[in-house]
């Protein structure tokens, strides 16, 4: 576990990986299961694993998602082989007797105010959404993460009667690098970081 990944792997995960607006191809259900089976190992607070994922793949499911999309995201999302609704469960603590069995971790959260649960769920669900992006890239998929949709509409359509809330969307498939814009810059270390 202490050896660095090969440079080609680091390229695939970070340096040459890009956000794609046009995604095609086919993504099998087995690949989606492999994707989840990788991302689930990423760390979260007390292993609470707040994220919930809806893989919107069928024409019927895409039709349910369609009205919630902003105009700029509509066509590319409808064309993508899969769109993942990355969401988080405010009742994440109900799973802690299974996920964190060596102590009563459920009691740390089950009396917290809803606003606190929302912050905790959003933070940890966002971490897991980032793990999804890296796991997808590791499996050779291209990704198109985005906001630009009506969260309330998505929640009413896909999560009615639950305490699950949508966070962001990720289109999955296979992109054409010839259709990408030039890569945007990133902040250098000294502008974004400090070593104290």
Automatic annotation (TrEMBL):
CDD domains listed in its UniProt record? RutE-like
A molecular-function term among this protein's GO annotations: oxidoreductase activity
Against InterPro entries, the record matches this protein to:
Nitroreductase, Nitroreductase-like, Nitroreductase_HadB/RutE, RutE-like
Name any one Pfam family assigned in the record: Nitroreductase
Give residue ranges for domain Nitroreductase: 27-156
Its needed co-factors are:
FMN
**What PANTHER family does the record point to?**
MALONIC SEMIALDEHYDE REDUCTASE RUTE-RELATED
State the family it belongs to: Belongs to the nitroreductase family. HadB/RutE subfamily.
Name listed for the protein in its UniProt record: Putative NADH dehydrogenase/NAD(P)H nitroreductase EER27_16035
Name the species this protein comes from: Montanilutibacter psychrotolerans
């Amino acid at each position: 576990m202490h050896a660095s990944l090969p440079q080609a792997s680091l390229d695939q995960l970070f340096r040459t990986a890009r956000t794609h607006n046009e995604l095609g191809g086919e993504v099998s259900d087995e690949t989606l299961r492999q994707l989840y089976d990788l991302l689930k190992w990423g760390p979260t607070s007390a292993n609470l694993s707040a994220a919930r994922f809806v893989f919107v793949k069928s024409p019927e499911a895409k039709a349910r998602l369609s009205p919630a999309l902003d105009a700029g995201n509509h066509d590319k999302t409808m064309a993508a082989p899969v769109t993942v609704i990355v969401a988080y469960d405010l009742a994440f603590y109900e799973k802690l007797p299974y996920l964190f069995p060596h102590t009563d971790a459920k009691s740390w959260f089950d009396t917290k105010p809803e606003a606190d649960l929302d912050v905790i769920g959003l933070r940890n669900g966002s971490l897991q959404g980032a793990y999804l992006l890296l796991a997808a890239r590791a499996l050779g998929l291209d990704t198109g993460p985005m906001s630009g949709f009506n969260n309330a509409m998505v929640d009413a359509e896909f999560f009615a009667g639950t305490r699950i809330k949508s966070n962001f969307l990720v289109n999955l498939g296979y992109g054409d690098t010839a259709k990408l814009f030039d890569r945007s810059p990133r902040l250098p270390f000294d502008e974004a970081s400090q070593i104290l």
